[in-house]
Every structure is written in structure tokens, then in C-alpha cells.
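Re: the multi-chain job from yesterday

Posting the exact lines I submitted so nobody has to dig through the queue logs.
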Amino acid sequence: MIKALFILLLLCIPTQLIAQLERRLVVQDRPVELTFMAPRNINILTTEPLSRGEMHYAIMHSFGELSNGWRNFYGIDNGAVIRFSLEYGIRDKASVYIGRSGLDKVFDAGFRYALIKQMQSGSPPVNISLTGSVGLNSAEYNFLGSREFTLYDRTSYYGALLISRKFSDDLSVQLSPQLARFNRTGFEIAIPGDAQWYFGLGVSARYRITGRLALTGQYIWSENSDSESFRNNVGIGLDIETGGHVFQLFFTTTQALNDAYVLAGRNGDPLDGGFRFGFNVNRLFMLHR
Amino acid sequence: MMYRCHILALLLLIAVATPLHAQQFYGENGYAEFESRAPALTFTGVSDNLVGLIDLMERTVDFYLDLNTLDTGISLRNRHMRDSYLRTNVHPFAEFKGRFTEDSTIDPMEESTQNVRVEGEFTIHGITRQREVEGTLTFDDEGNMLVLEASFEVALDDHNISRPRVVFLELSEVQKVSIRIEMEKYND
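And the result, C-alpha cells for all chains:
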């Protein structure tokens, strides 16, 4: 009898003590988020995905080289190359974009597809995305007396595998093996080489200083970097998140803003005023659910 | 004599325990919302995962929300909210634990909406503050279900959640929080 009473007591007491509910997460293992602050880190696309129905608007600028000196306000007076782009999430993992850049008046259209997401449990340990784009040079060349530029001549391609990992709250790194092809090269085009194929490896990094402020950096090793005009790209920057926009201020050695031209284009000498000031403004909208 | 005594004790225990069961209300799909009104932007974040327990006998409340479930409508903004502001990987829950104030008389058999006040501790971003929150309780006609509604304001500074002040003012210093939760009589 005493035993029974005791058991009953035990049964009653716990119910009396549920003053504190057990805290339970709705989802146990979540994806690691915000590896980078925006879909682009300085010049290189990141694995940071859009959701279905989301629209990412970016306006990017790069000014003249710092070596233009104080009279030209370190390149600001030289005017900016500007690229507008709109990227739309057709699915949670897949997005498509169009862009238009002032350099060679290139329209480009491309996609990003998230293959793998890094999870908090550590499996998988990295994010992997695939991106590709087609560019169309729309500049007028007739006045040069050049051979006519056909549609084929004006076309360029770009592809990259984006592999990123958020190592800690603060540090994220991305490797981006990439390639580009230009169907026609020559002095008329704003890339310095004659090669049609370009290969490179981009390294992007982000180091968070505070919640909304991060130092960014990039280095693009180019397989074609054997002469003076084919330097590797270097960029450093600052990302500022304001609650709705992400502002990216940076110094980079390339004038180009679309991916194929960043890989194949000319780079200034980082040790001799070859950096240019630039900035990206990123804004996201929800078009529909 | 001893035997009877035991039976009596048992009966007593049952008598005590049953009303305790009957006085607890539990809900787990409650609605929680915050609204940020800033000069440059107004937006809300919502969740349908508010969990709560009300004990009318003890006059206590315990609520928590998995902050990962808050949705502001833009996924990148959600990611920034979780990662840069709320730090949900370290502090995944917002919670409120408290006690009804003495002037809050609660009658489960009363069908009209009753005003209540709760004094307790509100925790978010790992920082706990004493709060007094006003709300309403509405019971159904049998007293088996209730709807709790409440709203209060949370100053981000109070909880060491820093916000951007440069360039644009897109996040309000004071967030208006509203909750609405249906709760049923709780049986273990």
C-alpha cells in the first residue's frame, strides 16, 4: 500500500512541477546561414542563395585607377563602369539572372544552382553551387573598319563551381574554380589577351567585425597570368548590412563587373596604384510566396 | 486503522492532483509577431510556433518561441536577422516566464474576455529583463480552451541587440511584439 501511495505521489508531483516547459527546437539540424552577406562578394558570385520568389537587385560600380591621382580624385573623375543585374529565385535552390555592364556594353544572362548546403551538424561540411552565364557584346564596332562582328563573335561564356565553408561565425572562405570563353578576341574587346579560353581559381573570404560589418577579400589566380597585362586579381572590401540593403565598398584591380570579364580582363598592378574604388548596392525583394 | 488512513491519503492525493491537471492549459502553434517601424522601412516577422503553458492554480505562465521560425518575408533578411541580430545559433529561444499579478482574477467559467497582467522575466538574445505584460484571456463555454492575446514592446538596446545606424534607418529601436495562442486543457 505504501508503495502504491509512493508511486502515486511520484506521478502527481511531476505534473505539479511543469512550470517550465522543455525547450524544443522546431527543426533540429539547420543549414548554416549567411556564409556571405550577399549573392556576390566583391566581384565573385557566392553560394548565398535566393529563395523561391525572391528578387535580388544589384547595382555595381567600379571607378578609375587610384594612380589617376588627386586631381582626378583617385579615379572617381574617370567615371564608373556600371552593371545592373536582376536575379530571381525560381526555386529555393535555383535562380536565374540578367545583367548589363557598361564595359563592352555586355548583356549577360546566367543561373546559380545550389547543389549542397552546409549544415550545422557538420554534414555536409560545405556549400556547393554551380553557376554559368552567356554574355553578348552589343558595342558598335563599324567605325573601326574591323571585320564585321557576328552574333557568334559577340558571344562569351562563363562557368564556375562555388565551394564555400563558414568556418566560424566570423570567417567564411570560398573557392571558385572558373572558366570563360570568348568567341572572338582582339584589340576591340576589353580583354587583353588573344586566348579564347580562360581558366582561374577564385578565393573569396569574409571576416565579420561586428554583426553587420565584415571585411572581405578576393584573389583570382588566372592561368593566363604570364604577362604584364595578365595579372591576377586582388580585391579588398567592406560589407555593410543595414537591415534591408547590403552595401559593399571595395578596392579591386579590375574594371570589369561581369564574371567572364573579371576572369579574362585586365588587372592593374596592386603595388602601383592599380586598385580601383568600387561599390555594390544589393537589395532584395519578395515578388511572391 | 492504518489501512483506512492510507486509503484516505490516496483519495486526498487524487483530489489534489486532479484539479491541478484541470487547471493547466497548453498550446504549441501560437502566433507571434514583431513589427519594426523605422523611417525607411516597416516590416513584420511572424511565426506560428509559439509554445506556452498556463497554470491557473499556480498562477504561472511559461512561453517560448524558437526564433529560427520567425519569417520576415525575405529569406536573406531572415538569415541576417538570425545570424547578425538574434544570434539564434547561440540563443535560439525567446522566452517569458511569469506569474499573474494579484489583481488579475481569472475565471475559466466566465465566457467574456478577461484582462490579465503578468509579471515575469522576458529573455531574448541571452539577456533577461523584468517585464509586466498586459493581455486578455478568453475561455470557451466549457472552460476547456482559452485564447491568450498580448502585446508588448521590446527595446533592442535592453537586450544588447545592436542595430545599424549608418546610411539608412531600416530597423526600429523598439519592436512591437504581439502574440495570440489557443491553449487546451493539458493532460500529461
